[in-house]
Design goal:
Blueprint lengths: L1 E7 L4 E7 L5 E5 L5 H10 L3 E6 L5 H4 L2 H8 L2 E5 H6 L3 H4 L1 H5 L10 E3 L4 E4 L2 E7 L8 E5 L2 E5 L2 E2 L2 E2 L9 H12 L7 E4 L5 E2 H7 L6
Parallel strand pairs: 3-4, 4-5, 5-6, 10-13
Antiparallel strand pairs: 1-2, 2-3, 7-8, 8-9, 9-10, 11-12, 13-14
């Protein structure tokens, strides 16, 4: 398994490309960067994108989802509530954040909590982590966790947007993420990488 990422100045978001280094088949996680940036990352790594994995529905994580799906034919993957939220402008906040609405789209693959999505030598375990939104999920593969806006370096996602809930978010982090091995590398939707063990000690919002 190999991965790389790009950062979008427009949304301050990290978009990830994870792929099998033998087959060069892979996935995009949270296409919140500009489509030209994403296509360049895909081309530079000679990857065929089979799936688009979404951690949640917000505009800054789905900005390029429509052109990316059209150009790659990749299937959209979410948790169950994500399939409804990504096409709902009242929840995805696309009009506010992008100036236009993304609506009417649904996921092609819906994962339940604990389900695995496999692609060649890759296996992504879906972990439900609602709280930032009610559709929040993380994807755990090997020693890596792609967690969207659930957990950040010494912080966590906000809970004051539609479908967010503080108690639910803190419970998701404590019960679902802090139970992972301390050496698990956390790749957040914004900001720098961290590790589960570090966050259990030093996170300013949620202590273990």
């Amino acid at each position: 398994m190999k991965y790389t990422s790009i950062f979008c100045n427009d949304t301050n978001e990290n978009t990830y490309l994870v792929f099998d280094e033998n087959t060069r088949n892979g996935v995009i996680i949270d296409p919140g960067c500009l489509i030209d940036q994403i296509e360049r990352m895909i081309e530079e790594n000679s990857v065929t994108v089979k799936y688009i994995l979404l951690t949640h529905c917000h505009y800054d994580h789905i900005m390029s989802i429509i052109p990316l799906k059209e150009r790659t034919g990749a299937k959209i993957v979410t948790g169950d509530k994500g399939s409804m939220n990504i096409g709902n402008p009242d929840i995805n906040l696309t009009l506010h954040g992008l100036g236009y609405e993304i609506k009417g789209i649904r996921s092609d693959v819906v994962l339940k909590d604990g389900d695995n999505l496999t692609l060649d030598g890759l296996s992504f375990r879906c972990i439900y982590t609602p709280g930032h939104t009610d559709c929040g999920v993380c994807y755990h593969i090997e020693n890596e966790l792609f967690c969207g806006d659930t957990l950040f370096l010494r912080s966590c996602g906000r809970w004051d947007l539609p479908t967010g809930n503080q108690d639910t978010l803190f419970r998701s982090i404590r019960e679902k993420l802090y139970s992972l091995p301390d050496e698990t590398v956390v790749h957040s939707g914004h900001g720098h990488d961290t590790e589960i063990g570090y966050e259990k000690k030093f996170n300013l919002c949620v202590k273990a």
